Amino acid sequence: MATPVGLVLVAHVATLAEGVRTLAAQMAPEVDIRAVGGTDDGGVGTSFDAILAAVTSVLAEAGPDEGAGVVVLYDLGSAQLTAELVLETLDPDQADRVLLVDAPLVEGAVAAATTAAGGAGPAEVAAEARAAYAPTAGASMAGMPESPESPESRGPAEEPVEGEERARTTLRNPAGLHARPAAALAHLVREYDARVTVGRPGSPGADAAGVLTVVAQGLRVGAEIEVAATGPDARAAVDAVLALADAGFGELDEEMSAAGPPVPPEPSARAEPAASAAPEPGTLRGVGASAGLVVAPARHLRRTEPRLPPTGGTHDPMAERRRLAAAVEQVDAELGSRAAGGGSGADIAGAHQAMLADPALHAGAEAKLDRATPAEVAWWRSVLEARDLLAGGADQVAERAVDVEDLGRAVLGALGVDARPSVRPEDVSGAVVVAEEVFPSDVAALGEAGVAGLAVARGGRTSHAAILARGLDLPMVVRLGPAVLDVRDGTPVVLDARTGQVRVDPPESELSAARQAARDLAADRERARAEAASTVVRADGTPVTVSANVGGTAEARAAVAAGADAVGLLRTELLYVDRPRLPGEDEQAEELGEVLAELGDRRAVVRTLDVGGDKLLPALDLDPWRHGPLGLRGLRYAFAHPDLLRTQLRAVLRAAYGRGEVWLMAPMVTTAAEARRFRLLVEEAARELAAEGTAFARPAKVGVMVEVPAAALAADEICAEVDFVSVGSNDLTQYVMAADRTNDAVGDLYQPGHEAVWRLLATLVDAARAAGRHVAVCGELAGEPDAAVRLIRMGVDELSMTPSAVPDVKAALRGRLG
Ligand code: PEP
Ligand code: MG
């Protein structure tokens, strides 16, 4: 439901206005926020007409009620002048309901949005925007807490203040105090006549009404937090915050709330693992992110908070801006030279360059530069804001949070701050490195230092760190949870990335068996790799296609190197995951063309954009519920956004020109009618390109993914519309088992190998074969050797998997297809 007050954000550059809107909307999606940036012809400046249109349209949406209105924020003085002119042309009753606010654009917009989301009127919204980051007694400049080591952060806050109420609690939210819980906190405290702060005990804390200041403290699950309040309602406010914290700020379900606080891992290897905290010898379960089996002692990756220069004193903001720009330029140049190199690191460096250029990151830092705040502090605060906002997103978005922090630290390094973990080769060589999170830049350093493997508490399979580890053949298990941080340095561990398990301090007999298994595995892999390039044939002489799933040029190269016969799934959304907005047709055609070029004459199945569900692209501002696993995702989303699909289809057909064979495939298809409509749209794109005389290649086959039980059960109807089907066993499993693939709470029910999944697969394969259609499987199941053999025996024509699995699957098929 729309709130009574909407916002108009005016900036000189469209991307700046849009970037700030995205930030604010993430915390207050219900507020009508319009971004107006640049001149009418797309240049730098402001447009009278565009501001007028935005203001009148927000006014119209807000309705005529008293208390409804528009708050306008702007970046520079000349934007203010244009906005004032707009106000002068409005009717007096309209103009009375519009407030122009002189406030920092980024912080002001966020404060205004979260206040408006609470139902406040225009005056209160404007006041909160103005107050954003105003210095407050006891808090550091800009209202932002310093790092825990910072001397300024101690002292004053520990002095008892008359009439002040204080209490402590433990943070229970799995993803820490990120944007969403911070927004809930801000809404709550505004209901009390009290000034409330939250933060680490002994620190001045952040004003609880300011979302970014709270988020920027980086409070993680298990952290002790102190709530302090002054004012008439101080006691009631503290009690209410404690109750909210206890309920996980609205993020935890009742069962978890009742279970008491989680084991405290206020993580980052800042804290030495407690000597008494070693778990019983046992097994930690995670997710294999880079294949391998190793037996080695554990060593923690030490990372400290960067030691920033103190705030205060007299800094020249212009000079600080220049220093920051020079440091960013230096890091950009370093990334540029890595991007020009080869290997998986090249793509990732390119993605990092794009992230480093994000205007929101720079706008955030620039807004914080003042006479008391040096470049290092302003930059780091902006980085933490961006990192925490990303961390609050779903999987692949959240995985980008470490990239932002990694980049942030690199820029701090260029500014002369020591912000890197101390990785001494003699400490980690031959060890399994244990960390809460590893940055992409750590992986390269650790690989060079000769580590044996990586055991990570958080992370994900699609993180850049995991991609780099696969490129280096460095075994890695992620998502082991906080318990892995309690494993003491020197403890022998068996890290098995095939099963995603880490055995901690097992008996000697088990260690020596694991060492032997590791040697056997290495020998098998060597053999498998040597034979991987040749095709697997069945006893009757028919070939089996063993393909790879890829998401970019680095994986395409890895697929070729691993001996993949083709690409069975090109996940196009991975090309766009780091972008603030989707690329246009030309850019998409060019980037896809680069991926296809890596494959030579191998065939590739290009899947159209699969967003929603676990894939929430920053560029598309998707609501996790509306676009969740059962919502408007995959092809459903594409149909709802015909221009987006048309652009992509045209780009794929253009990219296919002059390359190896391309097949086109739609994700998340439910009915035969959807399959037919998709095919017609492909035809239409081809007709358009032909009529224009644009060079393109028609896809050799058009097909759909079978990920929805309805599609598998009525596969005969689907097969009548398409040339091939490819099973997405990851999604099919989640829908058959009714267990969200990203929800750890139902992780034990998410069983790709469950008999129910196999039975449905058998139904589908029989239907596809009866219809004479090519049938492939491209989910994770296809990359497991035992399952791969069973699938091929069942009648599947093609298996597509992560590139590193290709040699082992080919070896298993060769040995066992009688
Ligand atoms: C699947 O669902 O199995 C699949 C291959 O698609 P994705 O994992 O990209 O959703
Ligand atoms: Mg899928």
Structural notes for this entry:
- This protein is an alpha/beta fold and 818 residues long.
- It starts with a strand and ends with a helix.
- Helix 12 (344-356) runs antiparallel to helix 20 (553-562) and helix 13 crosses helix 14 (375-391).
- The radius of gyration is 28 Å and the shape is globular.
- The chain has 30 helices and 25 strands.
- The model is unreliable at 135-158 and 253-280 (pLDDT under 50).
- Helix 18 links the parallel strand 13 and strand 14.
- The chain folds into five domains: 5-151, Rossmann fold (3-Layer(aba) Sandwich); 163-259, HPr-like (Histidine-containing Protein, Chain: A, 2-Layer Sandwich), CATH 3.30.1340.10; 283-303 and 422-526, Glucose Oxidase, domain 1 (3-Layer(bba) Sandwich); 317-414, Orthogonal Bundle (Enzyme I, Chain A, domain 2), CATH 1.10.274; 535-816, Phosphoenolpyruvate-binding domains (TIM Barrel).
- The strands form four sheets. The protein has an eight-stranded mixed beta sheet. An eight-stranded parallel barrel has the order 18-19-20-21-22-23-24-25, surrounded by six helices.
- Magnesium ion binds next to helix 27.
- Magnesium ion binds at residues 667, 707, 728, 730-731.
- Pfam families: EIIA-man, PEP-utilisers_N, PEP-utilizers, PEP-utilizers_C, PTS-HPr.
- It is found in: Cytoplasm.
- It is an enzyme of class 2 (transferase).
- InterPro entries: DhaM_N, HPr-like, HPr-like_sf, PEP-util_enz_mobile_dom, PEP-utilizing_PTS_enzyme, PEP_util_AS, PEP_util_C, PEP_util_CS.
- Its main location: cytoplasm.
